[in-house]
Design goal:
The complex is a heterodimer of chains A (477) and B (280).
Chain A (H helix, E strand, L loop, with lengths): L1 H11 L4 H27 L7 H7 L9 E2 L4 H7 L4 E7 L7 H12 L5 E7 L5 H10 L6 E3 L4 H4 L4 E2 L3 H7 L7 E2 L2 E2 L5 E4 L2 E5 H6 L8 H13 L3 E4 L5 H4 L1 H12 L5 H7 L7 H16 L11 H9 L3 E6 L11 H4 L2 E4 L9 E7 L2 E4 L5 H13 L1 H11 L2 E2 L15 H11 L4 E4 L14 H11 L6 H16 L1
Parallel strand pairs in A: 2-3, 2-4, 10-11, 13-16
Antiparallel strand pairs in A: 1-3, 4-14, 5-14, 6-7, 8-13, 8-15, 9-11, 9-12
Helix pairs in contact in A: 5-17, 5-18, 12-14, 20-21
Chain B lengths: L1 H22 L17 H5 L4 H31 L5 H9 L2 H4 L2 H12 L4 H8 L13 H29 L3 H9 L4 H12 L1 H16 L3 H6 L11 H11 L3 H32 L1
Helix pairs in contact in B: 1-14, 3-8, 3-11, 3-13, 8-11, 11-14, 13-14
Classes of the chains: A alpha/beta (477), B mainly alpha (280).
């Protein structure tokens, strides 16, 4: 009886002195919960960040460095009145940090008058996804770096560069065209990916470099027998986990049919087709062979880099940026080599990603100024010099060689540079990475990357690829 | 002033929900302004979306696990900390800290603990309890358990506070009477403490369900939805459909589904537990 009385008093708020406290505590709790929920969403990047927000998340030491203005004080004074402010969406990596962006933006501003740059930084590696978030909230930047242009061109959101300027400045001016237009200047290229190997481990264990897929499987077995992890894998994040399947799809699918992606758009081929399934089966075969560490899927990119460079693993499938000093110090680079992932018949297929950095928003209030800045940024030696040295970029600018940039590169970089310029090998688009006609449908690259992870636990390759076809069809409407 | 309250309610609650409902009936794409009205097509597509179904299954696992763990352990902590001394008062305050932390901070903190070379694995290996670091975040089963654990770690904080408040409202005379009648501690808990926590249980369970149903931030930082998409909650899937695929109409349909599930679950839970309160 007494219990029921107390229950009713809780319900009506007629509690004793102790009882009156707890509705207040609950109200406080709800307030706290509301506040926490809001913070969490914002921090996670669900809402577009202002520059200040981005800076708060960014662990760079130099908080003031995102506003880059002309270094020439006199020029700045003269142009302050009419200067326009352009927002520039950038990203940071271990190799391309604050110093790179400050130097490259500063160099571009030296040749463009009346422009100030407000630099935005993506919260993670997904530049394209973040750009979409900004667009959807009316904050589409004037300039965007290294996005997947194809996802925006159908909506008319990007401004093309004029062909005369492209022809005048770049070795392969049409390398990044989408429907005949270029939205990202083709300033440089990456081979994506390559198989890096530890020369010391290979020599000590008398392991020969593989030239065919069968030999590659033998190499994996030999490394395993030698007690090292055969292939390092940064499997925690999907983009870095994807490297083996990017190599396989590029070599085995695009190597056989360079128009595969166009045909996929037309519905003439599918992920579930035999050729694609066979290519992905090779990744599954590597998993079953024990080619990767047991902890591969919880190893992040910096840890995988460190593991490989420390000699914990024999091979590492990664982009050519890994040859840059931002990842591999010059004094140790000589102990590593690289080769394209071997094909069944030993033919050399090089997954190539010609790209650049700057895209211009067609909706910008200052399209001309944005184009002017983007062009200046693209051809500024300071931009390319750091990209070459730190990020292993292969410059594709007319009349310019690596030596012109006054940079110090490793012998491994030179080896890969020669591979990139060698006309005897077959070059194909790096599957899921390029930003040209071979770019995948919206959101599909992300799902394709994830396949590299899911094949660890799910050996039903065909059904996963059929699901990818379903996702593709939904994405293109 | 009533009109102001109504206006605010309409502007900040009904309009956004109504707008999302409208979008869910269109084929709106994120990057395009034009769209067509397509009726219920987006809703018809939901059952066939295997990624959505997988995300619902994952969310259900987390919701059930976290709600159970956070309420059982919340009651346990509250009972253990229910002492009137300053030290216990301080401990009751400290136990609330995980709830105050942003989900991003929580995710980051536990990511560093659960990483292959994180403090947990280093400790386990050093103590000789495992030969190799445990793949906490790289195995889909372990990653799911890890997320349930981490989310429970935060929700236990507020359930403990709710139950602590509830415990303090129970008159001590009841326990004294029970003691005179010869009741032991277990009997005192089952016959007095637990029934008297009925209102707290209703609030705590309902809030736990709602919080875990909309789970997003911890997952983004802790696992990024991986490995192999195995830890994508429905909210995570919604964001992916909206911003990666750019399908605003379809994403709005997922949002409406999530809203409906949350509302139904909250209503059913509250009704059931309220009925229990009345019975007691």
């Amino acid at each position: 009886m007494q219990k029921n009385q107390f229950t009713r008093r809780f319900a009506t708020g007629q509690t004793d002195r102790k009882g009156r406290k707890w509705p207040m505590v609950l109200a406080f709790l709800l307030l706290i919960l509301g506040a926490c929920s809001s913070d969490g969403d914002t921090d996670a990047g669900a809402e577009p960040d202002t520059e200040a927000d981005v800076e708060a998340e960014d662990d760079s030491e130099d908080e003031d460095s995102t506003d880059v203005e002309e270094s020439d004080d006199e020029a700045e004074e003269a142009t302050t009145d009419e200067a326009v402010e352009l927002t520039f969406l950038t990203f940071e990596t271990p190799a391309l940090g604050v110093e790179f962006w400050d130097a490259s933006i500063g160099a571009a501003l030296d040749s463009v008058e009346g422009v100030e740059i407000e630099r935005l930084i993506t919260p993670d590696a997904d530049r394209t996804g973040y750009a979409k978030q900004l667009q959807s909230s009316g904050q589409f930047p004037d300039l965007l770096s290294s996005i997947d242009a194809k996802e925006f061109t159908d909506a008319g959101l990007l401004e093309p560069f004029d062909q005369d300027w492209l022809n005048e400045n770049f070795i392969i001016p049409d390398a990044s065209t989408i429907d005949g237009e270029t939205y990202i200047p083709p300033t440089n290229a990456q081979i994506l990916p390559l198989v890096y190997y530890n020369k010391t481990i290979f020599e000590e264990n008398d392991i020969a470099l593989p030239t065919t897929w069968d030999e590659f499987l033998t190499t994996v077995g030999e490394l395993k027998a030698a007690g090292v992890v055969p292939i390092e894998m940064a499997g925690l994040e999907a983009w870095s986990a994807s490297m083996p399947i990017v190599a396989l799809a590029s070599a085995d699918v695009l190597g056989q049919d360079a128009d595969w992606v166009s045909k996929r758009y037309a519905g003439d081929v599918a992920f579930g087709d035999e050729a694609f399934v066979a290519a992905m089966q090779k990744h599954r075969d590597l998993i079953e062979l024990g080619a990767y560490s047991d902890n591969a899927l919880s190893t992040d990119f910096p840890t995988a880099n460190a593991n490989f460079l420390a000699g914990d693993s024999g091979m590492y499938i990664m982009g050519s940026w890994f040859t840059g000093t931002g990842y591999m110090a010059l004094d140790i680079a000589e102990t590593f080599g690289a080769f394209p992932l071997p094909t069944d018949d030993g033919s050399l297929v090089v997954p190539f990603n010609v790209g650049g950095t700057t895209s211009v928003s067609a909706a910008s209030d200052h399209v001309d100024k944005a184009l002017e800045f983007a062009k200046a940024w693209s051809v500024a030696p300071a931009s390319m010099a750091i990209l070459v040295q730190e990020d292993g970029a292969i410059p594709l600018m007319k009349g310019v060689s690596v030596s012109d940039f006054d940079v110090t590169v490793s012998s491994l970089y030179n080896e890969i540079f020669d591979l990139a310029l060698d006309e005897d090998n077959t070059k194909v688009s790096a599957f899921g990475w390029v930003g040209n006609e071979d770019s995948l449908a919206p959101g599909i690259a992300d799902l394709f990357y994830v396949l590299a992870q899911s094949l660890f636990e799910n050996d039903d390759i065909e059904s996963q690829l059929i699901q990818l076809d379903t996702d593709w069809d939904a994405a293109v409407g | 002033m009533a009109w102001l309250a109504v206006a605010l309610y309409v502007a900040f609650l009904l309009f956004p929900v109504g707008h999302a409902l409208f979008l869910s009936l269109t084929d709106r794409r994120m990057l395009f302004n034009e769209y067509d009205f397509i009726g219920l097509d987006n809703y018809r597509a939901l059952p066939g979306d295997s990624r959505l179904v997988a995300s619902l299954q994952f969310s259900l696992t987390v919701v059930v696990s976290v709600t159970l763990a956070s309420n059982v352990l919340g009651i346990a902590f509250a009972v253990l900390l229910n002492r009137p001394t300053p030290a216990f008062r301080l401990m009751r305050t400290l136990v609330f800290i995980p709830q105050v932390l942003s989900g991003v901070i929580v995710g980051f903190m536990w990511q560093t603990i659960l990483a292959p070379n994180g403090i947990l694995n280093v400790t386990l290996v050093d103590l000789g309890l495992v030969d190799q670091p445990v793949n906490w975040l790289g195995d889909s089963t372990l990653a799911t358990i890890a997320i349930c654990f981490v989310v429970s770690w935060t929700t236990i904080a507020f359930t403990t506070v709710i139950y602590s408040a509830g415990l303090q409202a129970i008159p001590t005379e009841l326990y004294e009477a029970a003691k005179i009648d010869g009741a032991n501690r277990i009997q005192a808990f089952t016959r007095i403490t637990f029934p008297m926590l009925a209102s707290a249980l209703t609030i705590s369970v309902t809030l736990s369900l709602i919080i875990t149903l909309k789970l997003y931030d911890v997952i983004v930082v802790l696992t990024g939805g991986g490995p192999a998409n195995s830890t994508r909650s429905t909210a995570f899937h919604l964001v992916w459909v909206a911003f990666e695929q750019g399908r605003a109409g379809q994403a709005s349909a997922v949002a409406m589904l999530l809203l409906a599930i949350t509302a139904v679950v909250a209503y059913l839970t509250t009704s059931l537990l309220r009925r229990r309160e009345v019975r007691l």
